[in-house]
Structure to design on (147 residues):
C-alpha cells in the first residue's frame, strides 16, 4: 500500500514543528524557563506597545480563553505584564516585561541560527525562495465548492 503524498498544509505544519522543536529545545538547553509552543506564539503575535488578549487570540487563531491561559501563565513566569490600554478604559494591553523582551530577543537570535542550519541542509537559495514565496500576498482565502 502506498502512502498518499502529503499536501502543502501538512508539509508547512511539519516545517513549523521542526522550527518549534529546535527553538524550545535550544532555549531549555540555554537555561531559559520552559514555555509551550502556544506560549511562544503569544510572543510572536505581540506588538511592541502591547496587544489586547482579543487581538492575540485572533492573530494566533485560538479562543480568547486559550489566549488568556497562555498570557496568564507567561505573566506568572514574569515574562509578560498587563497595563491599561490608553485607547480604551475597559481594555488592558499585554506586553513583555524587560525579562520577557530579553528572552524574546534570545529566541529571535536562536531562530536566525536555526534558519542558518536549514540553509546549510537544503541550500541558501532554497531557503531564500521559500521565504520569498511565503511573503507574497495571497489575498483572501478562496471559497471552493466541494467536487
Amino acid at each position: 500500500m502506498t502512502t498518499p503524498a502529503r499536501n502543502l498544509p501538512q508539509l508547512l505544519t511539519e516545517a513549523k514543528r521542526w522550527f518549534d522543536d529546535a527553538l524550545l529545545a535550544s532555549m531549555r538547553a540555554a537555561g531559559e524557563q520552559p514555555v509551550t509552543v502556544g506560549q511562544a506564539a503569544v510572543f510572536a503575535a505581540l506588538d511592541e506597545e502591547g496587544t489586547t488578549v482579543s487581538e492575540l487570540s485572533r492573530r494566533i487563531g485560538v479562543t480568547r480563553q486559550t489566549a488568556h491561559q497562555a498570557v496568564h501563565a507567561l505573566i506568572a513566569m514574569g515574562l509578560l505584564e498587563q497595563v491599561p490600554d490608553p485607547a480604551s478604559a475597559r481594555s488592558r494591553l499585554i506586553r513583555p516585561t524587560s525579562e520577557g523582551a530579553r528572552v524574546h530577543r534570545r529566541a529571535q537570535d536562536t531562530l536566525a541560527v536555526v534558519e542558518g542550519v536549514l540553509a546549510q541542509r537544503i541550500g541558501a537559495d532554497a531557503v531564500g525562495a521559500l521565504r520569498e514565496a511565503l511573503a507574497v500576498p495571497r489575498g483572501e482565502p478562496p471559497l471552493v465548492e466541494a467536487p
